[in-house]
Specification:
Layout (H helix, E strand, L loop, with lengths): L3 E7 L3 H11 L6 E4 L8 H4 L4 H4 L9 E2 L12 E2 L21 H9 L7 H10 L1 E3 L13 E3 L7 H12 L15 E4 L4 E2 L2 E2 L2 H9 L5 E4 L3 E8 L2 E8 L5 E12 L2 H11 L2 E2 L1 H6 L6 E2 L11 E9 L16 H10 L11 E5 L10 E6 L5 H6 L12 E8 L7 E3 L10 E3 L6 H18 L2 H4 L2 E6 L7 H11 L1 E2 L31 E3 L14 H19 L1
Parallel strand pairs: 1-2, 1-13, 2-10, 5-6, 13-24, 14-15
Antiparallel strand pairs: 3-4, 7-17, 8-9, 11-12, 12-13, 16-19, 16-22, 16-23, 17-18, 18-19, 20-21
Helix pairs in contact: 1-7, 1-15, 5-15
Length: 543
């Protein structure tokens, strides 16, 4: 096989998969995609409810974890990332969410013209395959299915009704640029199966003669000669190290944890840190690995009066066999559910300029902390029926960092999230938790709820709530920002607004790491839209 291509894409995740597909679409350019994981054609990936089993399974996820986190009681939090074609779109919670239009105006204000809501909307619509809504905000035929949930539980409908009773308006569209109110999430599910970037973009591209995808490829570094990226060194399954040449550009799409790692291993990063790691400095870029942001939540749980008002029993013991057979033979039932079905957005306080709280709800409850204490991973549903609602502050002020553990590309990076480090984040979080209690107290839910089980009615003061939160706080897996784009005179901006690495020709980064700030929602759809916009810029430069 020839090891020379027009473009080398490092990472076949949500952004890399779409980017590589679009670059190869015309047939004019040869594209190599390097993916560290394996195939996406596995049962747990295909089955929507499989996400809960895959997040912490190193056969499907890279197994990252944070440094000890102060506001998580010193715990190291699990930070999964997809380890397969399709990346995290192959293991995520399957929600289609874009964020608020002001998120993107903030990108413009951060020195990134051309990245506002009106600039991004065409790429959202081009990459969407909308199954329900028909208006100017939506499109069809794209790589991301946006569909109604195939299995909507009556308790989830009660959550929506209760939120409306609490004063939040009903809505059927959280993706019009101003997410607000209560309703159901749209999902990446089609015909009862996960619809991912791997299925909708990479698979079609693999039929093209100009598209090459190599799995189980561990990238060691980008090769930079005389200030220009000329290729990539990677290790194939079996251990051999190979160098592939890029005639035009190397495009790093390895995500918010691994894109900064690859840049630093290549000599692009904070000079002092690279020297500590024994890496020759090619370009001093102090912003690499900084500006780390993520969404964090704490699941609040309530027990309900009757088994049918919860799915807990559907995922426990012999009772779980029924949903398994229903899924195997009909592709229907509880195993087609996403990570959450109830959705809401609201302000944590009236002085917020936009809705800063996103709510997830599901007719399942479980104790992740108890499993962690037992040395297990994941969430085991409670023996008694229950429901869960969790709030995220979607525009956090806290910032973390990523550093190399060593110069060995097989070693995971060190990750410090600094969740809730900023007092404004803690205040918003506390207000959101109390608003969830207000929703739970409304007639639609009060009629089926027995009691609040986590944290329980005894936990009331700010101090008590924050202390309880330390045990249960968990990532929502939306890390961004570690290779941010920005103005030419911003010393912490690693990239110019066309996603080119400052000081290195022929090298761009295209994924969620480029975001100056975190969008007000899940990051899969924005990452795919970023890739679509990047492909247009790259192809325009190739003319």
């Amino acid at each position: 096989m020839s090891q020379e291509f027009d473009y080398i894409v490092v990472g076949a995740g949500s952004a890399g998969g779409l980017l590589a597909e679009k670059l190869s679409r015309s047939g004019k350019h040869t594209v190599l995609v390097l993916e560290g994981g394996g195939t996406h054609k596995r049962f747990l990936i295909e089955m929507p409810a499989g996400w809960g089993k895959m997040l912490y399974d190193k056969n499907f996820s890279w197994g990252n974890e944070s440094e000890p986190e102060e506001w998580a009681g010193g715990r190291r939090l699990k930070l999964p990332r997809g380890k397969a074609l399709g990346g995290s779109s192959s293991i995520n919670g399957l929600l289609y969410v874009r964020g608020h239009k002001l998120d993107y105006q903030d990108w413009v204000d951060a020195g990134c013209p051309g990245w506002g809501w009106d600039d991004m909307l065409p790429h959202f619509t081009q990459t969407e395959d909308q199954k329900v809504l028909k208006n100017k905000f939506h499109g069809t035929g794209g790589a991301l299915t946006a569909a109604a949930q195939p299995f909507a539980h009556t308790t989830s409908a009660a959550m929506v009704q209760a939120a409306v009773q609490a004063g939040h308006k009903p809505t059927d569209d959280f993706n019009n640029g101003e997410p607000d109110g209560a309703g159901f999430w749209q999902v990446n599910i089609e015909n009862g199966k996960r619809s991912s970037v791997a299925v909708r973009a990479i698979e079609p591209a693999m039929k093209r003669s100009n598209f090459t995808a190599i799995t189980h490829a561990l990238v060691h570094k980008v090769v930079i000669e005389n200030g220009r990226a000329t290729g990539v060194k990677y290790q194939v399954k079996g251990g051999a190290v190979v160098e592939a040449k890029a005639k035009r550009e190397v495009l790093v799409c390895a995500g918010a944890f691994n894109s900064p790692q690859i840049l630093m291993l290549s000599g692009v990063g904070p000079a002092e840190h690279l020297k500590e790691m024994g890496i020759t400095v090619v370009q001093d870029a102090p912003g690499v690995g900084q500006n780390l942001q993520d969404h964090v939540t704490v699941p609040m749980c309530w027990t309900v009066k009757d088994k049918p008002q919860s799915l807990n029993s559907s995922f426990r013991g012999l009772a779980a066999l029924g949903p398994v057979f229903e899924y195997l033979f009909k592709k229907k039932g509880p195993l087609t559910i996403p990570a959450t079905d109830f959705a809401a957005y609201f302000k944590s306080s009236p002085d917020q300029r936009m809705n800063d709280i996103q709510v997830f709800g599901t007719p399942i409850s479980g104790d992740a902390y108890a499993m962690e204490a037992d040395g297990k991973e994941g969430i085991e549903p409670d023996a008694v029926p229950g429901l869960t609602m969790g709030a995220c502050q979607v525009r956090p002020h806290s910032r973390g960092w990523i550093k190399l553990r060593s110069a060995n590309p097989a070693d995971p990076v060190r990750i410090k999230m600094n969740y809730l480090q900023d007092e404004r984040d803690r205040t918003a979080f506390l207000n959101a938790m109390r608003k969830l209690r207000d929703i739970a107290a409304q007639p639609a839910l009060a009629g089926i709820i027995q009691e609040e089980s986590r944290p329980g009615k005894a936990v009331q003061t700010d101090e008590q709530l924050l202390e309880w939160t330390k045990k249960y706080i968990t990532s929502v897996h939306h890390a961004v920002g570690t290779v941010k784009m920005g103005a030419a005179d911003d010393p912490m901006a690693v990239l110019t607004p066309d996603l080119k690495v400052k000081g290195v020709a022929g090298l761009r980064v295209v994924d969620a790491s480029i975001m100056p700030n975190l969008p007000s929602g899940n990051t899969n759809a924005p990452a795919v839209a970023i890739a679509s916009k990047a492909a247009d810029m790259i192809l325009a430069d190739a003319k």
